[in-house]
Amino acid sequence: MRKIMIKVVLAVLGIGAGYTFMPPVWLLIGLSNHIWFNNFAVNILIGLAVMHIVSIFVTEPLERLIKRLENNLAQQNPYVIISTSLSVVVGLMIAALISTLVSHSQVFLLNTVIPIVLMVIFGYLGYFVGRNHLDFFKKLMSSRRQRTEKKVEDLDNASVLERKTGDNFHRLKLLDTNILIDGRIYDLVNTGFIEGTLIVPNFVLYELQYIADSADSIKRVRGRRGLDILNKLRADKKVPVEMYEGDFDDIQEVDSKLIKLAKLLDAVVVTNDYNLNKVSEFQNVEVLNVNALAKALKPRVVPGEKMTVTVIKNGTERQQGVAYLDDGTMIVVEDGRYYLNNPIEVVVTSALQTDAGRMIFAKPVHSTRGIKEKN
User: Fold this and answer.
1) What is the mean pLDDT of the chain?
2) 237 lies in which domain range?
């Protein structure tokens, strides 16, 4: 596609060059009066022929140059591209307005050189301002986005609710290789606690493919599991899953590429890798660690822990009693019915996490029953 575009551009330039420069050439060599030479068709055909010869030598270098520019733009933060482009355009417009003051002068320095110098100076100043005042541009775009994200939700009472994305909300979530192999990200997405867009960079996908093709059977199973999880995420469509096509050829480590990409996209990294977590925090990149989430959701009590509770009612099973913690967690006490409405010290035997909440099982510390069962 690049070669076709380059050849089309060169062909158009050839037509223009032939039409413009061939008549003076015919005049110079004394053939301007020969209609078979100096005519529109011959002029553009000569221009096309000359440019075709030129294209043989310049097409490949131009294609490599365009490819490097594409890779460089793909790695740039979109805010940087937009802000610098707008600033350069504004700078050129200012230069053009100033140039109109001297454009009608008969002095070559004033009507030609000065406008070019102004274009270069104000274009560079615009680039400098757009590049070094990115934070202001981000705040401007963020405020505009927040104003456009207002929406009406409650149609029954016509109340208007606003949803504003603050500093703690990250629309883009970067997934690393380990989180896909782990598989818990799929369950987490299905619960609805993950919002925004999940981004899977190409270099993460390539690493998964490399692991899936490994000669080691254990690695091969882990790699295929990661690919399966990724396909399930895209198929379920609970949250958007997109691919990032760019790469960082100057960086070898996948974790380092993830951190750099997170900085460019202002994204957060989702992982369960302890080392990646620490390195990201050191480089001021926010991380959602699934292991930290699992640790935070663990029951506050563990088997073997002792506590004092008051049995307030009988349980569903024979001889069981039911007590509650301050946060409403139910404790099922073995032989608890014999201690009804009495404080008793119990030891936790197990804990169960259900969709309805946590449930703790315990038994009295002392084997002697405080209250005998009535016959």
Assistant:
1) 78
2) 172-296
